[in-house]
Amino acid sequence: MPEHGGARPSLILGISGATGAVLADAAARALLRRGERLDVVCSDYGELMWHHEMHERFRDATARWLTHGDVTVHRPQDVAAPISSGSYPVRGMLIVPCSMATLGALASGAGTNLLHRAADVTLKEKRRLVVVPRETPLSIIHLRNLLTLAEAGAAVLPPEPAFYLRPSSVSDIVDALVDRMLQALGVIEAPADEHRWA
Ligand SMILES: Cc1cc2nc3c(=O)[nH]c(=O)nc-3n(C[C@H](O)[C@H](O)[C@H](O)COP(=O)(O)O)c2cc1C
């Protein structure tokens, strides 16, 4: 068993193969800006989507992030990585975007890769798990799986734009969603703003 003593607890960022790579990129940058240490695992389809949507290889994105802070990238096949263990010092995990395939693996407990295992450990250790599911419309199977995760203690945060904030760009929408993710992770406080409706 690896030694983890003394390390500053990190946050795990899980990225799967749903549309929304831009959300994961913005979340990673926002967390690093706040001095958070990140353990990152991206599924194979997550990497494919990254290339498709961000016009860069996922490894180039992680190289960018590394210039801003402490990032450890794990291969999804590496189920023996430290984040597989409940004794590894982690405060919580954010999965953004979360595909319906990954959601199903988490809800059934029948995970096959490191992202699934890390989320399973996060739940069993009663740490914060924040899931940003992306699919539309949602089938009854998706809805049941989301309910299962919510019952197990996860925060389910669909990436819905807050139109009442009057966003004028995609970047405004992304930033508002990332704020919600960081609040759900306990990294930042929710603003005491009387105009904040939901
Ligand atoms: C262009 C493209 C877009 C996709 N968008 C979504 C999506 O928004 N939500 C989703 O659940 N799956 C989506 N998928 C399907 C997933 O990538 C597929 O189910 C994959 O097996 C997910 O694997 P993962 O959860 O291990 O990343 C998309 C696939 C492609 C090729």
What does this 3D model show about the protein?
- There is one protein chain.
- With 198 residues, this protein is of the alpha/beta class.
- The chain has a single domain (10-185), classed as Flavin prenyltransferase-like (Rossmann fold), CATH 3.40.50.
- It has helices at 21-33, 44-54, 58-66, 100-108, 114-124, 140-151, 170-185; strands spanning 10-15, 38-42, 71-74, 90-98, 128-133, 155-156.
- Strand 5 (128-133), helix 6 (140-151) and strand 6 (155-156) form a beta-alpha-beta unit.
- The longest helix is centred in the last third of the chain and has 16 residues, at 170-185.
- The protein binds flavin mononucleotide.
- Residues 16-19, 43, 45-46, 52, 99-102, 134-135 line the site of flavin mononucleotide (FMN).
- Flavin mononucleotide (FMN) binds next to helix 2 and helix 4.
Properties at a glance:
198 residues, alpha/beta, Rossmann fold, six-stranded parallel sheet, 41% helix, binds flavin mononucleotide
What is this structure, in a nutshell?
With 198 residues, the protein is α/β, with parallel strands linked by helices.
Structural class: alpha/beta
Q: Any idea what the CATH superfamily is called?
A: Flavin prenyltransferase-like
Task: Estimate the helix proportion, in percent.
Answer: 40-55%
CATH class descriptor = Alpha Beta
| Main sheet makeup | 6 strands, parallel
Low-confidence stretches: none
Largest sheet strand order: 3-2-1-4-5-6
Task: Name the ligand types.
Answer: flavin mononucleotide
Give the overall pLDDT as a whole number: 94
Q: Distance N terminus to C terminus?
A: 44 Å
Dominant shape:
globular
CATH-level-2 architecture? 3-Layer(aba) Sandwich
Number of DSSP E strands = 6
Q: Indicate the CATH topology.
A: Rossmann fold
Global Rg:
16 Å
Work out the helix count: 7
Return the string of H and E elements: EHEHHEEHHEHEH
Beta content: 15-25%
Count of all domains: 1
